[in-house]
Structures are given as structure tokens and as C-alpha cells.
Amino acid sequence: MGVGCGRGRPPYIVMSIVAGVDFGTLSVRVSIFDSVRGRLGSGSGDYPLHRIKSDPDHATQSHRDHMAALVTATRAAIENAKIAGSAVEAIAIDTTGSSVVPVDENLQPLDDYYLWCDHRAWKEAAEITAAARAAKLLAIDWCGGTYSSEWGFSKLLHWLRNNPGKRDKFATALEHCDMAAATLTGVRDLGALPRSVCAMGHKWMWNPRWGGFPSEDFLTSVDPLFKGVRGKISGRFATSLSIAGGLTAEWASRLGLSAGIPIPVGAIDAHWDAIGAGARLGDMVNVVGTSTCIMAMSPGTDLIPGVCGVVPGSIHPGLTGIEAGLSATGDVFDAIASRAGSTVAALSAGIETYKAGSTGLLRLNWDNGDRTVLVNPELGGVTFGWKLTSTAQDELFAAIEGSGFHTRIIIERMEEYGVPVERIINAGGIPQKNATLNRVYANILDKPVLVPERDVTSLGSAIFAFLAAGTFQSVEEAQGALSPGYTVVEPETTDADVYSLMYPLFRDLYFGLGERSSVLAELRRFALDRGGLKSAAS
């Protein structure tokens, strides 16, 4: 290794090369980064998402498919970067979450992952919430007051209830990021499993202030099937500054890397995307993709009602990470286009000329439920103002506006409870290619929106890989060397003024319909009872 002094970088930075891995909903991306030259190359590998026509809440994936795709992507990245695999000094992995896999004592999967967007456990989530509120459980307050069907304990309970023949083999359950790290490092001791405080804190109610997880008594009060489970979800709970282990010789051979290189404890993809996007204290990052994850950080640790998680060390190891989000964003856009027999790209052609409120529509994007701040998976999408002349393009624009209004609801909730929000960063795949979304967000939020000039996917992973390799001494130093600059989208006075009048209408409908109306939940029950969802899916 030599010493480099890249443009604007301190001359003492040691040149090194690492791999950053990002497991998304449909593919894994591996990027090779040089500490001075930045991204050298990347590769990807796809895997199927398993859906069932009769159950729209079902969404699973195979661990074997994930790891096969990782091999494909890593080797492609090495070739694309035109380096020898032996030059890679560390590898770090982020994944979707909460994506949960039950395993046996040998860490072999007993089933497919319950992917983050699997909502089959909505009844289990409601039971956990009701029991927690009745018991005045401190942990429920720290995850927004409502437990979600997208989170770990509800998914595990659903699996335990629906797989009686496999329960005797159940040894533990892992988040995808922890399963990947354990697989690559060869960990077999269940007590030594690396456990990400990011995943476990935001999705499993884990917090050292109450001794880790909620008590055994509480869990078994929800369902006796939880007996002994608390003790089985054991391991080393750590931030991403900790090393999960070294890459085994077997996986080094498969991936084309060197055995023994360090692998830090992983995290949820959106949290590391925020780091890659350059997020610091005072920034709020919207990672906009199929759904939206909204990340912020705080120097203190205070409760925020309705916000998914407040977890020390989860995004930046030295700050409290705060996560919120929208259960569907790109998925809503795709569904609108699909119903119109079109694509989002085709429908988007022309909507750049739309003005605030010009469609006469107001849309609540609850098509996949509400993640924050109502935390209600039973809600459904609602569009107000339909006319005979309304088009699919109109609905797409209204959906973009709806995602912006919902984001403003979340920002106001965070600010109300002392979280500083000085800059808005729009990261993720959609802001990179949808200028209309960035313009609408800037006008609705009435703040400049910063869009990274380059894709930051897997850059957060690379930053933690560089920290594991000892290349940089802090997250901020690594961000200064690697995070891109921004394109700034300023609010437009006329549209911002219109949105300031529309927003109270949206806010009243959001809370009025979402909190006090049972119509949407009842419609869902009618459809399930009468087989309507099955018929529609068929």
C-alpha cells in the first residue's frame, strides 16, 4: 500500500481497497471502493421474491439464493474494478430489515426469510401491541407506541404458529444482516453470534436500558409459544464499529477474496445509505425506493410517539439513530402504472410541467399500510377528488405529492420532540432519476432538498469496511473522503405557497381518517372473508 492525496483529501490517507455490499429487495450490489479514487467498479446479482396470489401479504426469499447472488455480484465487481480479489482488505454488508430467518442449531435455515415487506404477521403485531400497552411496557414506547407486522417478534410468532412441525428444530432467529455476517465468518456458537444493534434495536425492541429484550413473562403473556425464545435470541450485540469476524477460507474461495479479512457487524440498508449520503447531525435523509426509510440522528435519546425506533448507535455509532418511513413509495408508483398498462417512466413523461394542486387530487399512500406515524398495516390507499377526466398521470403526480405530504407529517413529529432537522437529503434510487419528486418535496417541505450527485448505494457499507480495515479513524473522516457533493433543489415560491394551503387538508385527513375511521380496516376484513383479495390477485 502507498500513500495518496486525492483532490481535497488529507495527504495522510492510506490508500486501501474494500468491498461494500448492499442487499436490496430484488438484488445484491457489491461495489469496490478505493479510499482515494472512490468507486472502482461494481457488480450485481438477482434473486427472486416469492409471492403467493392468494395472500398479498406474503413475501419471502431464500438464503441460498441470496448467497449465490453475492458470489455472482462479488466476482463481477472484482472484474469490473480491474483489480485482484486479494487487494480487498475488508468487506461490509447491509441488508433489508426486518428480514427474518429461523435457523437450527447449525445455523441452517428452517424456512425462507420473512422479507421486510411480508405483512402476514399483522394479527401478531396487533396482539403484541395490545399486550404491551396493557402491561405499560417501556419498550413499546421506544418503538413509537405500536409494534409492526414488518418487525421481528411479530414475524417470528407468525412462523412459530404456522410451522408446528419445525418448532422442535428452532434454535434462534436472525436478521438478514446478522445471518450474512455469521455465514461469511463461520460463526457456529449461538452465544457468539454477531447481532446488529441497528436491526435489533429498531425491529426487536432490544435496548440495554431494560436488559435487552422485553421479559420472558411479557413474551409468554402474548403467546406461550414464546417460551424460551428470549434466551435463544442471544449473541454479541454491537454497533458497526465492532468486527463480526474474519472471512472464512471457504467463502473467500467462493467470492474470490482473501481469507481472514475483517467483516464488521452489519446494519439495515437505509441506515448505512444515510451515512453514505453524507448525513450528519441535523440532517434528515429520505432513502426513497420501493418504500421510504427516513433517517435522522440526535445527540440525546428521547421518545418520539409514532416513530418506529429511537436507538443509540444504530446509524452513527456515536449518536442516537431515529428511523421512520413510508411503507410504500416506488411500489405505489409502480402499481399506478401497472393498472394503467404502462410504466412509471412512461407516465412520468410530461408530469414535470404539473403544478402544485393542478390535478385536483389528494392522495393518501396507504396502499401497503402506514409505517409512521400511525403504524397501522390495515389502512389502504385513498384518493380524493377523482373526476371523469382524471388520468393515470394525474394519480402518479398526486401520489408523489402524497409521499411528500406524509414526509412532512414525519418531519413535524420529529421536530416536535427535539430532533434537529436542518437539511433534507433525498437518497435512494428514485431521487437519482425523478426530478419531479425532488421538486415536489422541496416545495411541500419548503426547504432546499439535497440530492447526492452520485449513487450512494453500498457506499455506507464501504465506509464501515474502511473503518474495519483501519483506513479512516472516524465516520466523518470517511464521509469527507468518499461521500459525493449535492445537487440542490430550491423551493419555488408559488408552488410552496399552494402546498402550504393544501398541507392542512392532508394533515386533517391523515389523522382524521387514519386514527378515527374503521372503514379501511373493515373493507380489508370483508375482502379477506369473502375471498376478494384472492380473486383480485388471481
- Beta-strand portion reads 15-25%
Helix content percent band: 25-40%
Distance between the termini: 58 Å
Using only CA atoms, what is the Rg?
23 Å
Strand tally: 23
Structural class: alpha+beta
List segments where confidence is low: pLDDT < 50 over at least 5 consecutive residues: 1-9, 534-538
Protein architecture, described:
The protein is of the alpha+beta class and 538 residues long. It contains 20 helices and 23 strands. The strands form seven sheets. The chain has a seven-stranded mixed β-sheet with strand order 17-18-16-15-21-22-23, with helices on both faces. The protein has a five-stranded mixed β-sheet with strand order 3-2-1-6-14, sandwiched between helices. The N terminus and C terminus are likely disordered.
Which features does this protein show?
538 residues; alpha+beta; five-stranded mixed β-sheet
Please give a quick description of this structure.
The chain is an alpha+beta fold and 538 residues long.
How do the helices and strands line up, and which of them pair or pack?
Layout (H helix, E strand, L loop, with lengths): L16 E7 L3 E8 L3 E9 L3 E3 L2 E7 L1 H19 L6 E8 L4 E4 L9 E2 L7 H13 L3 H4 L10 H11 L9 E4 H10 L8 E3 H7 L12 H7 L6 H4 L3 E3 L4 E4 L2 H7 L6 E3 L2 E2 H8 L6 E6 L3 E7 L10 E4 L7 E7 L3 H10 L4 H5 L13 E3 L17 E3 L7 H25 L6 E5 L1 H5 L1 H11 L3 E4 L6 H11 L5 H8 L3 E4 L3 H24 L2 H11 L2 H6 L1
Parallel strand pairs: 1-6, 6-14, 10-11, 15-21, 21-22
Antiparallel strand pairs: 1-2, 2-3, 4-5, 5-8, 7-9, 12-13, 15-16, 16-18, 17-18, 19-20, 22-23
